Amino acid sequence: MIDIQHLTKRFASHTAVDDVSLAIGQGETLVLLGTSGCGKTTTLKMINRLIEPTSGSISVDGIDVVKQAGPELRRRIGYVIQDGGLFPHYSVAQAIATVPKLLGWEPAAIQERIHELMAKLQLPETILNRYPAELSGGQRQRVGLARALAIKPPVVLMDEPFGALDPFTRRHVRRELFGLNELRETTVVLVTHDVSEAIELADRIALMDKGRIVQIGPPDELLNQPANDFVRDFLDDQPQRISR
Ligand SMILES: Nc1ncnc2c1ncn2[C@@H]1O[C@H](COP(=O)(O)OP(=O)(O)OP(=O)(O)O)[C@@H](O)[C@H]1O
User: Fold this and answer.
1) Residue ID of nearest Cα to ligand 1 atom 11
2) What is the pLDDT of residues 82-108, one digit of tens each?
3) What domains are defined for the chain?
């Protein structure tokens, strides 16, 4: 579904993404995991052309992304960021309707899809006319996802989608969302630095360090057969008391 070949991004003399190659299958959830600054977000943003690569290639569904206009590509690829990424002056209903409207859907079809998504994401219809500032963090997150899923895109990119939530709400919202049939059929690339989130959600984890993929595989493989000490230490995030 997504094929990344020798992808490199340099910002001046700094190499943020360094010769990354990976293939992501249809319906797969691939988690890009790693410390702050290791190049996860830069990799993600090159898939929907918010950032242009220095070299290398990315194809989505067999088509090179550089052969597609950025705005058109971004309409077809869902994108969810921390705290939902909602426009403050768009109501919930307007936010979810944005891309279907751009694609010329009939108003009745848009309304039907809005109601369907509200039900699926367990959002009360009473918030349809509210603005993001009038929602809870968990609701904003779900509305952000509803907006990203509105046209049933084959691919959804998520950048720390639960990062703004407290640990309890975070677990709850992510279990709810990833339990949706709709998301199961979608190819998801998710960026996080949260090890338990990666283990819980990923079909495969790509653990990154300094712009490179250190190990890629199913969570069990990284846990049981870490390629090196970095992988072992990174995944060993059990809380430990500091002795004094
Ligand atoms: N526009 C930019 N100009 C210069 N350097 C940049 C730019 N964007 C990112 N970088 C640098 O590239 C590196 C990778 O950044 P990136 O945002 O991809 O990391 P990340 O793994 O997503 O980190 P985080 O989890 O903190 O978001 C960092 O060192 C960052 O400072």
Assistant:
1) 16
2) 877 889 999 999 999 999 999 999 999
3) 1-13+26-76+153-230 (3.40.50.300), 87-152 (no CATH)
pLDDT of residue 240: 66
The model's pTM is 0.91
In this structure, the number of other CB atoms found within 10 A of the CB of residue 110 comes to 19
Model confidence over 192-212: pLDDT tens digits?
Answer: 999 999 999 999 999 999 999
Contact 1, 24 (CB under 8 A): yes
Judge if ipTM > 0.90: yes
193 Cβ closer than 6 Å to some ligand 1 atom: yes
State how far the Cα of 78 lies from the Cα of 49, in Å rounded to an integer: 13
Which residue's CA lies nearest to atom 12 of ligand 1? 16
What letter represents residue 102's amino acid?
L
Q: In what order do the strands lie in the sheet with 29-34?
A: 77-81, 155-159, 187-192, 29-34, 204-209, 212-217
58: tokens are 């990315």
